Amino acid sequence: MDGTWTISELAEHAAAALSADGSTQVSGRVRDLPNERLIRWYTTIGLIDPPLGRRGRTALYGPRHLLQLVAVKRRQATGRSIAEIQIELATATDETLERIAALPTPPAVSAPPPARVEKPSRPNFWSARPDVSYTQATVPDDYGKPPPPIVQGVRLAPGLTLVLDVPVLNDDDLTAIEIAARPLLQELQRRGLVSAPENPTSLSARPTRRSQ
Predict the structure, then answer these.
(1) Strand partners, 151
(2) Where are the annotated segments for Disordered (predicted)?
(3) How wide is the angle at C-alpha 73 spanned by C-alphas 68 and 76, nearest 5°?
(4) Which of 38, 61, 87, 111 is deepest in the core (most CB within 10 A)?
(5) In the chain, count of helices (H) and strands (E)?
(6) What contacts 26, CB < 8 A, 6 or more positions away?
(7) Which residues of the chain have a pLDDT value below 70?
(8) Are 161 and 153 in contact (CB under 8 A)?
(9) What is the rounded CA–CA span in Å between residue 149 and residue 131?
């Protein structure tokens, strides 16, 4: 892994890692490989760190973002819910993410090829995507079961997310959480366990469905 990537390049690297061993086929509820929209959503709920920086208007991502993205999909493939993954990976170290993500080892560099070599075609990162045609009717495994609960993830500060199993959080709820969390944030910041929030006067909550 080298340097930084755009969000589309990050999605391609993650898709290649997951397609290498067929991880996306383990669970019928985890079918789509990562894309830009999913990466932005994971960043909003605290599963992926904010971008390292920007080149102009282009957000840049690094190796830790790749580990986080692949680790989330690995856990989803084993049947874990988003809420469970948030609790486990919200403050995971690089070593923990490397163990869970288990990125494929890049092939060894071979000797220089002969003088004339055709440029290899770009790998097809979506080759492992399942057939989504409707030529044959299928019934999902969870048909008829109650819908999964909605989980609200409230990001209090970088690296600190409050997960609530509630259907709705309104502005009054967020204001109350912000006021109640101030002493905790101040103590954690004093101990150097979390950094100060980017916008300490505003909290955000996004609903998270178990089937995502």
Answers:
(1) 208
(2) 105-128, 189-212
(3) 125
(4) 61
(5) 6, 5
(6) 77, 78
(7) 1-2, 21-32, 106-151, 167, 196-212
(8) yes
(9) 28
Of 150, 137, 16, 135, nearest to 70 (Cα)? 16
Predicted TM-score (pTM) of this structure:
0.50
Unique residue bearing structure tokens 């290899």: 120
Residues 6+ apart with CB under 8 A from 62: 3, 4, 5, 52
* H or E segment and range at residue 52: none
pLDDT tens digits for 59-96? 999 999 999 999 999 999 999 999 999 999 988 999 99
Please tell me the distance from the alpha carbon of residue 44 to that of residue 149, in angstroms, as a whole number: 19
Q: Residue 52: which residues within 8 A CB-CB, separation 6 or more?
A: 4, 60, 61, 62, 65
CB neighbour list of residue 211: distance below 8 Å, 6 or more residues apart: 29, 142, 148
CB atoms within 10 A of CB 10: 24
Q: What share of the chain is helix, strand, coil (3-state, %, to 5)?
A: 35, 10, 50
